[in-house]
Amino acid sequence: MTAEAKAAIAASPALTERQEARRRRILHASAQLASRGGFDAVQMREVAEAAGVALGTLYRYFPSKIHLLVATMQDQLQHLHSTLRKHPPSGDSAAQRVAETLMRAFRALQREPHLADAMVRALTFADRSVSPEVDTVSRQTTAIILDAMGLDHPSPRQLSAVRVIEHTWHSALITWLSGRASIAQVKIDIETVCRLIDLTAEDDDSA
Amino acid sequence: MTAEAKAAIAASPALTERQEARRRRILHASAQLASRGGFDAVQMREVAEAAGVALGTLYRYFPSKIHLLVATMQDQLQHLHSTLRKHPPSGDSAAQRVAETLMRAFRALQREPHLADAMVRALTFADRSVSPEVDTVSRQTTAIILDAMGLDHPSPRQLSAVRVIEHTWHSALITWLSGRASIAQVKIDIETVCRLIDLTAEDDDSA
DNA sequence: CGCTAATCTAGAACAAGTTCCAGACTTGAT
DNA sequence: ATCAAGTCTGGAACTTGTTCTAGATTAGCG
């Protein structure tokens, strides 16, 4: 990635209307191609063509394929989060609500398994140059989980539990996407890790 | 990957001595290059040259870079497992012993962060064509954890907990390798998820 | 409007993973 | 020892992510 491209990404504000439209077209093309054939089907030349943009321009907006797919994930997560806000989970305990929320997200991913493949593979393959963007995704995920728990001021213990839940969520998705775990297996793993929430709710003293 | 290469890998038995030596040289070269510069530094041409083998031969033994690195991980895990057998963890509870074991493995990885990077990235990036090999790694990891727990016949509950621990282990490693989590953070996550073990040890009735 | 800097385009060029090929070498069976 | 089948070698070729360049277009400003 060139230095100027890095700067262009860092200082994201102040895009003209046409630039904003280009960005949208690129993200749309990315999601579309990903939905068809997953990570491998998102080929930079094809994204550029489908978005009606030169290859160099694509790289100005997203300095690598990984950046592009992580940005695509940010986009999708935002949709998901607003959907979830409108229809909050209904479980009695925090653990139930979190599990319910994650299973809902999981079902959404099952509807577009190729897209899920592209996004999750990009996320876990990302190296340090994509850390800020991956971190954003992580914060979005955390926000969704905390929403489901109904917490505004989580304790350090609870934050640790949320982190572990996110770890499990990502890794379980990978095993499912690579065909090494069934949907039922993922469900069990999610429910298992969510028990940590109840655990941290009880005793919050011992170091 | 060609069909014949797939067959060569599937039916691994009966390698001549020279072939076994070649395989060793390749794995050694892979680990060496990985130790230097991580995933990107393991370039197939360089591996072939360092192992004194033609590029086509390298691909006959390992049908892709991912296969090669996952095999490298199998190799390293085997070392680790035998080391751990000789010096078992000393904690009182199963959770303590597992956490101790994983932290020991983590410290080993910290000594070769580039190698860790190459192996873990390959593992999580692997697609379906590498599932059998990745599954082997997973079983090795499970065996190490069960050893630490001191269990021969784990309950389904306990197996679920172990699965979640593995998820957390892999994902926490990724966040550490990509610089998004500190060593201390990883330690906390491991200790947090290990509490699941104590949880499953207690009540093993409710569905 | 007219200028200047930034942006965009088309396309060549480069890098590394992967595939393919023709010929030399090994191996195993007879 | 010899032959057939399988394996290895060196190297070219192909694919796709990434970079670079020269010229056209656009945006913002006086």
UniProtKB/TrEMBL annotation, chains A, B:
Source organism phylogeny: Bacteria, Bacillati, Actinomycetota, Actinomycetes, Kitasatosporales
Keywords: DNA-binding
Residues in the DNA-binding region annotation: 43-62
InterPro entries: Homeodomain-like_sf, HTH-type_TetR-like_transc_reg, HTH_TetR, KstR_C
Name the record gives this protein: TetR family transcriptional regulator
Matching Pfam families: TetR_C_20, TetR_N
Superkingdom in the source lineage: Bacteria
Species this protein is from: Streptomyces crystallinus
Residue span(s) of domain HTH tetR-type: 20-80
PROSITE patterns: HTH_TETR_2
Keyword DNA-binding assigned: yes
